[in-house]
Amino acid sequence: MAYLKGLGAWDEVSAGNNWSSFGAVRYVWREPGSHPSLPQILIFDRTVTPGERTIKFGAERRLAQFIGVSEITRWVAQGAPLPSDDGLTGKQ
Questions:
Q1: Which of 33, 38, 42, 86 is the most buried (most CB within 10 A)?
Q2: Residue 23 lies in a domain
Q3: Is residue 85 part of a domain?
Q4: What's the CA gap between 44 and 61, in Å, rounded?
Q5: How confident is the model at residue 82 (pLDDT cuts 50, 70, 90)?
Q6: DSSP string, the chain
């Protein structure tokens, strides 16, 4: 976790409990096209609408997936660009 903090701000990080963690079950085992491999970075987008007493969350959309040290290193060397609507970075 200390290493990730040094790379910048993250909205959310899932770590621990090996392959049965909440994040692994939801985003690796249940996600079509994913496969178990470490390390990996998944980038999602969703609309969040805060109200006075509730918060509404839109559907998640996977924008990018970077698997393995060389793929992540290449992405970071490019400045870790975030995907845009005109062309996704990484794998879908």
A1: 42
A2: yes
A3: no
A4: 5
A5: confident
A6: -HHHHHH---S-----SGGGSHHHIIIIISSTT----SSEEEEEE--EEE-SS-EEE---EEEEEEESHHHHHHHHHTT-PPPBTTB--S--
Helix (H) or strand (E) holding 76: helix 69-77
Residue 53, pLDDT > 90, answer yes
Task: Give the total number of structural domains in the chain.
Answer: 1
Would you state the structure tokens that stand for residue 82, as one six-digit string?
A: 């975030």
Query: What 3-state DSSP class applies to 60?
Result: coil
Question: Which CB contacts under 8 angstroms, 24+ apart, belong to 58-62?
Answer: 62/31, 62/92
- Bond from prior residue into 32 cis (ω within 30 degrees of 0): no
Q: Is 55 a domain residue?
A: yes
Domain-embedded: residue 68:
yes
- Nearest-angstrom CA–CA distance, 74 and 68: 10
Residue 50 structural domain: 15-77
Measured distance CA(67)–CA(40) in Å, rounded: 4
